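Question (not urgent): is this output format expected?
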Amino acid sequence: MSPLEEAMSVCSWVKQLSSTSSKGMWMHYKTQNYSAEIVLSDNLVWAYLQNSNTPHSQIPVQSQWYHVCLAWSFSSGTAMLYYNGVEIGSRNTSRKFSVSTGSIVFGQHHSTYKMEATFSWAHSFGGELTKLNILKRKVSGQEVAKMYKSGVCSNYEDTLENDIHLSWETLLSNDTEKHGNIIKLNLTCPTHTHQPTTAR
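Got this back:
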């Protein structure tokens, strides 16, 4: 995981189906030193990197697919949050990404003092995900806009194959350990593409 010490990006399509008052975690990565190295919730109330939230005012539209990327590099010293192809928040960072002895959970929240996941109704993800990829570099704003404009059913992520550290296909693989009520659905593709926009 050493490449992620210098740069990383997390990108995914998300559909929030639970109440916006919940903080359903669709991704939570922690280390022994930091409890919230990466935390992303379905309503984007939590968009943490390096144990600090990225400030923004965006509220996703419930029950609709939205695209999100959290991108960072040590050289630029910034973490940037994108929603539907548009930057909605940024934050200065001061250290390299911590990757030692980490634990990653999708769809749930870690215990605050243990490395394994602990089930919590308040933090469980009630929605749908697709094309969740972790990349070993910071994606550009132009690339994020292209991902969104291409649409939820495009193959744009295939062009980033050499940059992907952990792929959606790996997460879906039968070799990847899974727990909880996880259902694979056939994705219904819209007949249109998207223009980068925010929903206020």
